[in-house]
Amino acid sequence: MQVSVFVPASLRQYADGQRQVRVEAPDAATVALALERLRACYPGVVERALDEQGKPRPHVNIFVDGESIRAGAKRGLATPLRADSEIWILPAVSGGSGQP
Amino acid sequence: MPLRSDVVLLIGTTKGLFTLDASGQLKNPVANGASFPSVAFDPRNRRMLAGKTSFFWGTGVIHSDDLGQTWVEPEAPNLKFPADIDKTITQAWQIVPAGADEPDVVYVGVEPAALFKSTDGGQSFDLVRGLWEHPHRPTWTPGGGGLCLHTIVLDKRDPQHLTVAISTGGVYRSVDGGASWKASNSGIRADFLPEEQRFPEYGQCVHKVARDPNKPDTLFLQNHGGIYRSDDNGSTWSDIGKGVPSDFGFPMVVHPRKSDTAYVIPNGDAFNRWTPDARLRVYRTSDAGTSWDELTCGLPQKDAYITVLRDAFTADSLDPAGLYFGTRSGELFASSDEGDTWETLAERLPPVLMVRAAQLG
To answer: What is the pTM of this model?
Structure first.
């Protein structure tokens, strides 16, 4: 099956300028697997969205089919996908403290 | 005061990276929502380096080979812990190119406190495992700025001799290129511990260390409470803070050529962290800390509630030496006469984290 990953404007320079990247993934693939596939072509996107432990960075949100993977019913990067699922990588609304 | 024509200042702030040259105009702002807690100039190849920290997208080291006009960002972040270490780098605090005998070596200190080494001029980095695996490391604790390795001091006599400072861990030294390390804090006070524990083996909140260029066994140190000198390459330390209105401060800058000459900027006490008496004063010793001169000419002496962070003060190596510092309130001051008089080079910058002088001559 194929799924779509939507790349935020600030990372498109690492995806040949694309807003939407189609990724081939096996049936019942997870978000983690889809992002691993994306990493093969566009490591600059995935390694900025995920830290070196493979976890979403604290101020990055990932949505699947309209719902955050951090939401109660979702399972983080283990959230399963279906054909034509849409994965959105987004900078979170956060900040205002923590930086000097 | 325009800058001299052979100096370009690199200014890292919480909201962008700037350069300033003899034109007096701030140039080449690089932001993209990032802070730049560390900047460096590598005179061996005239490369500028900067630690870029995005609030969202992680941290890495970028570089410029055209004096800041364009910057090269790695395809993927180039600072990361190896897969077997369950930590994430949040900030690059210090970038230090090695000496001429190691032309492609660049060291970087990060948060959480760790040392990284590049052997390709600052494009990729490997963890210095000897320090990471030191038995003290799990017991280091964050200071107010985080648990960071913020200072790297090299010894031009011996590239295997590395000195680092960690808040809070204190000073550590290696004589084998980073394979093994020993705490080196004998005589440095830790005011924040119970009285009978105030001189621990490690755990001090050392803020900055600098080496005397002509007497390389002499080091100067600004501590979180206390100004110190070592005459034995860091083995032992003596308090030299008498004569300075506050022994709390962040930066420590040495004169590029004159022995026994160092500069500090007192920053109140541990509770009121602004310039003492709301006067912005630089203190200079020319006798290794026996006495200090108060330098105020051209600096605000009224209602100046200012903080200068540990790497926001620097010197060039011209004759006479130029001195430069930025403030958390966005001013940039400079002296072209070794601190006797000062002028304002810029105002209304974002909070300044680090200033370095790229000397082109």
So the answer is: 0.95
